[in-house]
Amino acid sequence: MPDRGGGPTGPRIRAGRPSRGVRTLLMTLGVLAVLGMAFTMFAGFWTDWLWYRSVHYSSVFTTMLWTKIGLFFVFGLLMAVAVGVNIWLAHRLRPPLSAMSMEQQSLDRYRMGIAPYKRWLLLAVTALVGLIAGASAAGQWRTWLMWVNGVPFHQKDPQFHLDVSFYAFDLPWYRFLLGFGFATAILCLIAAALTHYLYGGLRVTSPGARATAAATGHLSVLLGVFVALKAVAYWLDRYGLAVKSSDFKATGNWTGLRYVDANAYLPAKTILFCIAVICALLFFATLWRRTWQLPVIGFGLMVLSAILIGGLYPAIVQKFQVQPNEQAKEAPYVQKNLKATREAYGIDDAKVTEYAGKSTTPDKTTLRGDANDAASIRIMDPNIVSPTFQQLQQMRNYYGFPTNLDVDRYPTKDGKEQDTVIGLRELNLDGVPKNNWINDHFRYTHGYGVAAAKGTEATDGQPVFTESDLPSKGDLPRYEQRIYYGEKTTTYSIVGGPQQEIDYSDDSGEKTTSYQGKSGVNLDNPINRAAYAVAFNEPQILYSGAIGKGSRILYNRTPKERVEAVAPWLTIDGDAYPAVVNGRIQWIVDAYTTSNGYPYSSRTTLGDTTADSLTATNNNRTVVAQQNQVNYIRNSVKATVDAYTGEVKLYQWDTKDPVLKTWMKAFPGTVQPRSAIARDGDLMSHLRYPQDLFKVQRELLTRYHVTDAQTFLTGSEVWQVPDDPTNKSGNAVPPYYLSMKMPDQSKQAFSLSTTFTPNGRDNLSAFMTVDAEAGSSDYGKIRILKLPTSTTVDGPKQVQSQFNSEQDIAAAIKLLKGGDSEVEYGNLLTVPLDGGLLYVEPVYVRGGGLKYPLLRKVLVTYEGKTAFENTLGEALDKVFGTTGATTTPPDTGTNPPTSTNPTVQQALDDAQKAFDAGQKALQSPNGPDWTAYDKAQKDLKDALKRAQEAEAKAGQSGGGKNGSGKKS
């Protein structure tokens, strides 16, 4: 047709269609976007594989990967095939079409619209549901591995007499399969119904039959499958009663069967199972009867039965059988819960002993020596003195110590074990002189050395360091001091290449080094560099000249991160702690196996039961997976992380734990046998009972220290963990490590201890310890001293209140707070002594120009007598009435006092002057002058020593007796 516009002729361009060049550009951009997304996904996978290979746990990665892939494809394919087959079958069973009604005419337009794309639409729908189902199934890799590798507990539940492994390993997998079956049946039913409706098999407004015979039969079978799955659910629910949680008014959180469960719900579930089976058969029968009358009646009967038998009947039993005589009805089931809970949390062997709470010794002066034997009382609080370590041992701003230090045991020069406060001088990037990419990731890469101090001593308020300075030196044997892996090391570093690292600084200047370890991932390969550039969103990794031959990237550097990554089936304790072992700094990490399927054992939330006043202020001390609800826990694995190489070792600690055995079958070769600990030198001497397990156990023991069901139901013996009285956080008092001797022990043992108070009151109800020394035969033995209920013994809050209300102590503390000074209370330690309880609390002062706390006073109380002195020894002397041995003897009234020795008198006068000078320094208008106060204390100590020596000399020249005829 000729062009009527008069313009030039040529190819016509459709309006709105982009040119070929634009289409090419768009296609290129689309391809690049797809390739970019693909490489991003590849980078995540590849860097994970490289990291697992670098730590020699590639089998963990491959086991998880193939398990997830297998579950994804198997269950994704099952779902896709099931939905696809039912859509295809519904389409195949479609009736001959006749657009006789408005409904069918409307649907005809849709049918015509999708007709050319039916195959693609079917593939798209099945692929979508398959992807969703596969992704959901892949998330169940733990459930699958536990089911397929489960080992027996060799313990049976008291109701069904099945091995506990059925509830811990089998039942979760069966429930997943059941849930998958329900989802598949529902999706198939929806897809089939829509297809039947679209092609006329189902009608809503058209005259005549609402469904064809083919559609009726097809949908009835799917409904029958759904009801059959409901029958299976009723059957599994019977066993689920043994691990069901409920709120029981008499006990609070409850797990397991109660009277109404065993006598109403259990038979109801069995009856409902039978009804559901019959109802499913009626639905299947529609293939021959072609009517929904009987299935609908059966389904209605099942719903009515579920309401009456499954809901109303148990309520009647509870109201008219249980409530009138609850204790008698529930007691047998409570007894089962008591036994199971104590076994599941490892508290079944806890030894409860009656303890008087009052000393029976009339002359308390005889107990002074016993106080030293009762405990190595730690006056250096690891949760207070970190700023002191920081100020005295930081050395450079780019080093730092953790907020809470750790307590360990190290031998003294004479070979005796002593409680030691220890911390690592880790890298602190906030203190780097100039932050940039090279400094943060290449130059400043590691910390350096250990700082350690005696836990029981102080000099002029400062720690007595047994390992100090930079490089560190002291009592510890030689060890590799560089710290590339630590709690504060949360960023990546690139080491070992052309860029030198800052090692440490001394008087001669900065020393440099280059990492010689084999840790990390090699960046020689350009593919590796590109992958890490994408994974870390840092393009410079790809092209930076600071990366070259030998460069390695270190990441996942905190001990908890590394252990959790190589053993994702473990729950990690909140407090990893360092130890010098065989010439290396090793981080020791406690790890737990847990389960939520121990029948009759009450559940607890780890985050709640492990919270205390320390975790409230330090997130690093919180347990990994803290929101997990568990009702079984074991400290089954002890792990170590080398601070230099990052090497992770897992040791089997609990050799009887079936959960650990199950995971060891699933991941063979990842956990070394317990005997391997002995091959690693003195590692055993640094292992200890973990804090988080102890906190979980103490929370359970507030109720489950009772073994009698009747007493448990009355609630009269319920305890509580007291709030920390030394601060205003309102959180529980943390447990403390301390070498101490319980009444049934012949010598001190490294222990973890805590206190209990009655529910709603502040007096003491019990004192609990666990033997924390891994090498001892009593390791893990829980001892509880139960105080009498007929008399009251002061609890921690009351003791703290007593400290604060004593007039002389309050006045002294007010003086210490003068100016801009702050008083900080250390750990309130409790020590059993001669039937009573000795409380000790160090008091620190921060201020007067100082940036760190110094130990200034020690509070001690015993049997209502309180002392507030400069040293622990002086406070104990005062409390037990043994003070005054170095001063002028008292007049007994039998003989006139002898004249005072002039030398003694001069020394006492000097002591008085020093004391006055010290008080004046404390009351300085500008705040306490600690330098002058320290000098005054030294002068006072020197004067008292001269007085003692002069009087001793005078006593010897006069027959060694004073004027009263008694020794001074």
What is the topology?
Blueprint: H1 20-54, H2 58-92, H3 102-114, H4 118-138, H5 141-149, H6 164-198, H7 213-240, E1 245-248, E2 252-255, H8 259-284, H9 286-289, H10 293-322, H11 326-344, E3 351-354, H12 368-374, H13 386-393, E4 399-400, E5 406-411, E6 417-424, E7 426-427, H14 437-443, E8 447-448, E9 450-459, E10 462-468, E11 473-474, E12 482-483, E13 493-495, E14 501-506, E15 509-513, E16 521-522, H15 526-535, H16 540-543, E17 552-554, H17 559-566, E18 571-572, E19 577-581, E20 584-595, E21 604-605, H18 606-609, E22 629-630, E23 632-642, E24 648-652, H19 658-666, H20 675-679, H21 691-704, H22 709-714, E25 719-720, E26 736-740, E27 749-758, E28 766-771, E29 782-786, H23 796-805, H24 807-816, E30 822-825, E31 829-833, E32 836-846, E33 854-862, E34 865-869, H25 872-879, H26 902-922, H27 930-957
Parallel strand pairs: 3-29
Antiparallel strand pairs: 1-2, 4-7, 5-6, 6-9, 8-12, 9-10, 10-11, 13-17, 14-15, 16-17, 18-20, 19-20, 20-23, 21-22, 23-24, 25-27, 26-27, 27-28, 28-29, 30-32, 31-32, 32-33, 33-34
Helix pairs in contact: 1-2, 1-15, 2-4, 2-6, 5-6, 5-19, 6-7, 7-8, 8-10, 26-27
